[in-house]
Amino acid sequence: MEGDVMNIQKSIGTGTTLIHAGEPEPRIRGAVSMPVFQSSTYEYAGVEGDSELKYIRWNNTPNHVALHEKLAAVEEGEAALVTASGMAAISTTLLSMLKPGDHVLAQRALYGGTYSFFVTELSKLGIQVEFFDGNNPSNLTSLVRRETKLIYVETIANPLLHMADLETVVNCANDTDVISVIDNTFATPVNCKPITLGFDISLHSCTKYLNGHSDLVAGGVIGRTDLIEEISGTLIRYGGTLDPHACFLLHRGLKTLAVRMEYQNASGLRIARFFEDHPAVEKVYYPGLESHQTYKRARKLLSGFGGMISIDLKDGVTAAQRFMDRLEVALVAPSLGGVETLVSRPVVTSHVGVPIEERKALGITDSLVRLSIGLENTDDLIEDFKNALE
To answer: Cis link prior to 24 (omega < 30° from 0)?
Structure first.
């Protein structure tokens, strides 16, 4: 294989694209599955320049190339690349686009690791970050200054699952010539394709839904060719490249993403409705419920509401911990998006690095429980949750 990949038209379904886009053409020795090229070094073929040299850190081995083509096709971007983790995708993208003296506008409700990177690492570089309300960014354009280079949001915010006003964000970025970046991890390309909404760059923690099996850490970046090339150069210099074997596992996991998300969309909605009707639950956060603050926006922009649910219990932290301790089917563990249902408290996992005052301002309570609904039988999960609540 010399970088030739199967060209899949964008008009076909997402499930077909996930399976066939980016596959080698012709198949390597007839192998239906993409082999693992577990080689750090490739023979030098006498080409001029470095564009055709193959090396793992340069992110251009056959396993990398196939993944890049698949990710770009499924999210309808011009190009894509994979990284060693979701945070590597985020940090490399931001470090590629920003320099000392620049100004960033970021949605206030963010994954804890992203928030920490903004307030800790970017500040060290002399890059100023200003946060805004993603649910109601009516004054966003007025916050843009001459130094503003980038606007950053999440499709579905972690952990309260609010959906930002993506249309306003894109319009602001276009009107002010600012780069728009979105973390699409919770929605996945099955439920939302931000590039088609006008975003310049879409990011993923491929550790989560895209891989779906809780057995690797990876990240993805999709967007315009010129931006991906710039980010790729930064990635090569920083060295955050994904190993070929992890590429193989992610490649395999992507092929079942559409069918997994279809089930998790349906199961997530049923379970969210169960929690909403349960007397022990104070509040349910799920974009597919009419009671959710951003339900109308989610219904307009999403093709499915996903498998992430957060709940607050009426009796506070004690009840939350008791609920988690009594679970028998669901597992108490951080992360999300796998075939197993995982349950955690964000204040001690995903958002432990966010200051208490900031968590309170966002509405993230100590008793908040976040659930990532897996592929177990939905009735079994509901029975498990019912028993744990009682």
So the answer is: no
**Which letter, b or e, does each residue of 361-383 get, where b requires 16 or more Cβ atoms within 10 Å of its Cβ?**
ebebbebbbbbbbbbbebeebbe
Which one of 54, 102, 165, 183 is the catalytic residue?
A: 183
Catalytic-residue membership of 183: yes
CB 56 within 8 A of CB 40: yes
Give yes or no: 57 in active site.
yes
pTM over 0.90: yes
324 CB burial (10 A radius; 0-12, 13-18, 19+): middle
Percent of the chain with pLDDT over 90: 81
Q: Among residues 102, 111, 243, 345, which one is catalytic?
A: 111
Short-list 309, 306, 313, CA closest to 283: 313
pLDDT value at residue 349: 83
Interacting residues of 244 by C-beta distance below 8 A, sequence separation 6+: 36, 37, 38, 39, 56, 61, 63, 64
pLDDT of 235 above 60:
yes
Answer whether residue 46 shows pLDDT above 80: no
Rounded to the nearest 10 degrees, what angle do helices 86-97 and 225-238 cross at? 110
Give the neighbor-by-neighbor strand order of the sheet with 79-83: 79-83, 219-223, 201-205, 179-183, 148-154, 103-107, 128-132
Per-residue pLDDT tens for 134-158?
988 889 999 999 999 999 999 999 9
Q: Give the E-state strand segments of 171-286 in sequence order.
A: 179-183, 201-205, 219-223, 281-285
Asked about 27 being catalytic, the answer comes back as: no
Tokens of 212: 């779906």
The C-alpha atoms of residue 170 and residue 181 are separated, in whole angstroms, by: 9
Domains of the chain: 14-254 (3.40.640.10), 258-389 (3.90.1150.10)
Strands 179-183 and 201-205 turn out to be parallel
Say if residues 21 and 6 touch (Cβ distance below 8 Å).
yes
Query: CA–CA separation, 257 vs 254, rounded Å?
Result: 5
